[in-house]
Structures are given as C-alpha cells and as structure tokens.
C-alpha cells in the first residue's frame, strides 16, 4: 500500500577511504539531511537549513528532482539540509538517495536497493559530472559499502570511531576529479590494491588499527591534499592524538580520521587546532559508522 507523505533522514557519507577511489563508502552517524516528500501534480523543491541558498531548486538541476523525474513521479520535496555543501560528505548524494528511497516506498515500486543506488547515482551525476555510487550506496545501505560495477556489498563494522573535520574550504568534486592523473603506474596500482584488500578485512573484523593502516594510498590523497591548506599538519596532529588513519573524505575538503571511540574528542581538538594554526576555521563531527536512510515519519 502506498503513502502520500514520507519524512526520511539521510546520513552524510564519506567516499574512498583512501585507496577505494569510487569503490568504498561509509555512512556516518551524523550530520544528516531530513527530507519530506509529498505526492503532488507538479515537482516543487524547497530547501532550508545549512548552505541552502546555494542549492538549486529547479527540479532539473537538483539531484533529488532529477531522481523524481527518472522515476516519472511528481512530488513536493522539502529538503532540510544538515550536511555541509561541497564538503566531501555526500551533500549532493543524500537528497538523491533520500528521494529514491522515499518514492520507492510511497509508490510501492518494489525496486531492490541496488536499483535505488543506480537511480540515485544518475541523479548525483548532475552535480559531479560522473555517476559514481560510492556516496549514494552507503546513504541507502548504511555501514561500509563496496561498489564494484553492478555488485554492491555492505558490511557493518561495529564501534568504529570517526572524526570528520570540515574546514572552511570549498572543493568542487569536478575540480578534484579533473586534477587527478589519468594513468597510474603499476607500482601505485599494486599499492592501492593492497590497501583496498586489507581495508575490507579490517571492516570485516571491526579492526580499527587495520582500517587505519589501510587508508594509506598512492597518488589520490597526495594530489588532492594540495587543495586543502594545512593538510599535512592536520593529518600529523590527528595521528599524534591517536588516530589509526587519516585521509580525505570523498573529494574533500573534509578530512576523516578513524580511531577508537574514546579517542575522538582529543583527535577532533587536535585537528581543528591544527587548521586554526593555518588560519582556517573548521567544524568537527564526532561520530561513527552509522545507518542508512530511515523513515522518521509517515
Ligand atoms: N569518489 C568520488 C571522488 C567521491 O573522490 O571523486 C566524490 O563524490
């Protein structure tokens, strides 16, 4: 039986985790977007909350509106943003994933989660230029997700501390993709494959230290970190404060540290302080690997 109205919560997500470029993603406990969807004659989008003035409300330019159009549905969509924009925390993926999930429920479409990921990734393409699913997949499944061609594998590690520090630096995903080299040496591919393989084992065992070590990668972090002022110092301070590993969240500018649950506060302080020493203000989200999209009303 369908529903006329649904309110959903969609988590922020962090893609790549170092070597898993366009392949790995995790859902974060917070921050999150809240989206209300209501059946209507026409698709109308309103956006409130964090950075809302920069988000397009034209349904053909908004990732959520594009998803509604791909599913041939007309709905009123109210987006209450909590995820900072252009931050590397899946801000364009969240509304796409939330609306794909909500429409599937409201119209009893019976689409499997893999299909919702595929549709949401098409919506996100409007924002980033390519249909990678490493943010939309964890936004829908929760946990840690491996996306490889049509295969989606979720894992649910427990008690993994996460500190995501978002500096006041805007990095567009298009730019962060454009600066990457088109080819990698065999040696770099081999290194990244090793990190990715051990990351999966780390997630299967909920082994924080192994996850942290497996965040080491070649080329991607090195090239993109040039867009984040103070990167080296912030990373060093996080490791000194006890982080098991640190890398760029998605295409940045957020930096993500993996650590024990009790170490999060200290690491957050060390990272924000190191950014300040580089004259950059930042905000720390102290969280964990969390759940996917959830219905909160309707
Ligand atoms: N995997 C993507 C990238 C995530 O790093 O460009 C950004 O949306």
Present as ligands are: L-homoserine
- State the secondary-structure class: alpha+beta
Large-scale geometry? globular
Please state roughly what percent of the residues sit in beta strands, choosing from under 5%, 5-15%, 15-25%, 25-35%, 35-45% or over 45%. Answer: 25-35%
Number of domains: 2
What does this structure look like?
By secondary structure, this protein is α+β, with helices and mostly antiparallel strands. It folds into two domains: 5-155 and 290-297, Ribosomal Protein S5, domain 2, CATH 3.30.230; 161-288, 2-Layer Sandwich (Alpha-Beta Plaits). It has ten helices and eleven strands. It has helices spanning 63-70, 93-106, 113-128, 136-141, 173-178, 186-205, 208-213, 220-224, 231-240, 264-277, and strands spanning 5-15, 24-39, 44-49, 75-81, 144-148, 151-155, 161-167, 245-248, 255-259, 282-288, 294-297. Strands 1, 2, 3, 4, 5, 6 and 11 form a seven-stranded mixed sheet that branches. A four-stranded antiparallel sheet has the order 8-9-7-10. Helix 1 (63-70) runs parallel beside helix 2, helix 1 packs across helix 3 and helix 9 (231-240) runs antiparallel to helix 10 (264-277). The two termini are 12 Å apart. The mean pLDDT is 96. Bound molecules: L-homoserine. L-homoserine (HSE) binds next to helix 5.
């Amino acid at each position: 039986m369908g529903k006329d109205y649904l309110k959903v919560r969609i988590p922020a997500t962090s893609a790549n985790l170092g070597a898993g470029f366009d392949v790995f993603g995790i859902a974060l406990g917070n921050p999150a977007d809240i989206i209300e969807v209501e059946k209507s004659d026409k698709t109308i989008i309103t956006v409130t909350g964090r950075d809302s003035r920069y988000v397009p409300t034209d349904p053909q330019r908004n990732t959520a509106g594009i998803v509604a159009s791909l599913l041939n549905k007309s709905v009123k969509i109210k987006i209450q943003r909590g995820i900072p924009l252009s931050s590397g925390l899946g801000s364009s993926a969240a509304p796409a994933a939330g609306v794909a999930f909500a429409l599937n429920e409201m119209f009893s479409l019976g689409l499997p989660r893999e299909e919702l990921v595929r549709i949401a990734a098409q919506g996100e393409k409007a924002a980033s230029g390519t249909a990678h699913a490493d943010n939309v997949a964890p936004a829908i499944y929760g946990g840690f997700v491996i996306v490889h061609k049509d295969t989606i594998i979720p894992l649910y590690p427990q008690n993994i501390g996460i500190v995501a520090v978002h500096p006041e630096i805007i990095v567009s995903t298009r730019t962060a993709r454009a600066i990457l080299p088109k080819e990698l040496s065999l040696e770099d591919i081999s290194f990244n494959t090793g990190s990715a393989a051990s990351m999966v084992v780390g997630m299967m065992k909920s082994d924080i230290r192994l996850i942290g070590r497996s965040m080491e990668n070649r080329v991607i972090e090195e090239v993109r970190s040039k867009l984040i002022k103070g990167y080296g110092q912030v990373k060093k301070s996080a490791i000194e404060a006890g982080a098991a590993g640190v890398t760029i969240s998605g295409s940045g500018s957020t930096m993500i540290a993996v650590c024990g649950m009790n170490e999060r506060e200290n690491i957050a302080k060390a990272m924000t302080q190191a950014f300040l020493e580089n004259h950059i203000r930042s905000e720390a989200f102290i969280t964990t690997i969390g759940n996917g999209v959830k219905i909160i009303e309707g």
